[in-house]
Amino acid sequence: KKPPITFDSTSGKVSGNGGCNNFNSNVEVQGRNIKFGPIASTRMACQGNGEPLFFQTLEKINVQSVNGDQLTLIVGDIAKMRFKKVK
After folding, report:
1. What pLDDT digit, counting tens, does each position of 29-85 carry?
2. What share of residues in the chain are helix, strand, coil (percent, to 5)?
3. Residue 74, number of CB atoms within 10 A of its CB
4. Does an H or E element contain 54, and which?
């Protein structure tokens, strides 16, 4: 399944699901800059290696861009992930 992500701006936390396991982390947002803390996740056995790559990439993200209902997470100047707001 597609990984959902939820931001709680009051507590500075982020949570979601990496496609198999639930995760959470701290997040700092200052303008377009964003920094995720270490990812903590459940440890269910999952097929493939997409989820570890998702978590590793999330920890490298340093820029975010919001355009309408779309959030783009970026490393340097390369878009790595896109999420669409669920209404």
Report:
1. 999 999 999 999 999 998 888 899 999 999 999 999 999 999 999 999 999 999 999
2. 15, 50, 40
3. 18
4. helix 50-60
Residue 56 three-state SS: helix
Q: Could you tell me which residues are beta bridge partners of residue 59?
A: none
The DSSP bridge pattern shows strands 70-75 and 40-41 to be unpaired
Task: Give the angle 77-12-55 at the CA atoms, nearest 5°.
Answer: 50
Provide the pLDDT confidence category of residue 4 given band limits of 50, 70 and 90: very high
What pTM did the predictor assign?
0.89
The pair of three-digit structure tokens given for residue 25, joined into one six-digit string? 């982390």
Distance CA(76)–CA(28), nearest Å, equals 16
Amino acid residing at 7: F
